[in-house]
């Protein structure tokens, strides 16, 4: 969804992949440390539209499961009474002047900043999601491979006009992308060869 709404982001991701691995193979998880922009794209996607919509239910300014304090506490200059709800937030000055914009560049390749966002999505401490590493690796593979071999752009309606998605996501206990029409084209002859190899393996 974000790749067709922000084509400039897609191009940056493709340029990073091309510079690192060339055109002879698909990206693998071993390449992940060399793809800071692709990793930032994933972090920004999860920040912007987390799969669990609690942040939308409570406020556009907060994200993460609420926790109640077991006792009185002090944070900075703030007194927090026992029983107060604490809700993690990612809409602060650490993310730059426009937190509501989709912008992978905001992380500047900083893994710590990306991990802060991922912690809000997958949880932290003893209650973090046990499938966190599997999800992160899967998201990387699902994003990096199409970026390497395909140009993805908005599809056309029956009149031949560009059709942008009218609904960004579904509602419910878990958010999924809304219906979207896209156009997918191989980026090169080498990309077509890789696609052929994938089709042969899949059968």
From TrEMBL:
Gene3D superfamilies according to UniProt: Cytochrome P450
UniProtKB keywords: Heme, Iron, Membrane, Metal-binding, Monooxygenase, Oxidoreductase, Transmembrane, Transmembrane helix
Main location: membrane
Binding positions (heme): 129
InterPro entries for this protein: Cyt_P450, Cyt_P450_CS, Cyt_P450_E_grp-IV, Cyt_P450_sf, Cytochrome_P450_fung
Membrane topology, as annotated: Single-pass membrane protein
Subcellular location: Membrane
Name of this chain's protein: Cytochrome P450
GO CC aspect terms: membrane
Top-level taxon of origin: Eukaryota
Cofactor annotation: heme
Similarity-based family: Belongs to the cytochrome P450 family.
GO molecular function per UniProt: heme binding; iron ion binding; monooxygenase activity; oxidoreductase activity, acting on paired donors, with incorporation or reduction of molecular oxygen
Organism: Crepidotus variabilis
């Amino acid at each position: 969804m974000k790749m067709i709404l922000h084509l400039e982001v897609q191009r940056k991701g493709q340029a990073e992949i091309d510079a690192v691995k060339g055109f002879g193979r698909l990206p693998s998880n071993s390449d992940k440390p060399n793809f800071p922009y692709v990793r930032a794209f994933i972090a920004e996607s999860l920040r912007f539209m987390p799969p669990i919509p609690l942040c939308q239910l409570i406020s556009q300014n907060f994200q993460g499961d609420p926790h109640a304090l077991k006792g009185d506490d002090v944070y900075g200059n703030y007194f927090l009474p026992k029983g107060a709800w604490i809700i993690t937030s990612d809409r602060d000055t650490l993310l730059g002047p426009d937190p509501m914009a989709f912008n992978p560049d905001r992380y500047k390749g900083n893994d710590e900043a990306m991990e802060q966002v991922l912690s809000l999505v997958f949880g932290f401490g003893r209650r973090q999601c046990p499938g966190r590493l599997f999800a992160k690796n899967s998201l990387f593979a699902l994003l990096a491979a199409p970026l390497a071999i395909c140009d993805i752009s908005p599809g056309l309606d029956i009149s031949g006009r560009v059709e942008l998605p009218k609904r960004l996501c579904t509602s419910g206990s878990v958010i999924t992308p809304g219906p979207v029409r896209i156009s997918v084209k191989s980026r090169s002859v080498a990309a077509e060869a890789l696609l052929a190899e994938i089709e042969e393996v899949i059968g």
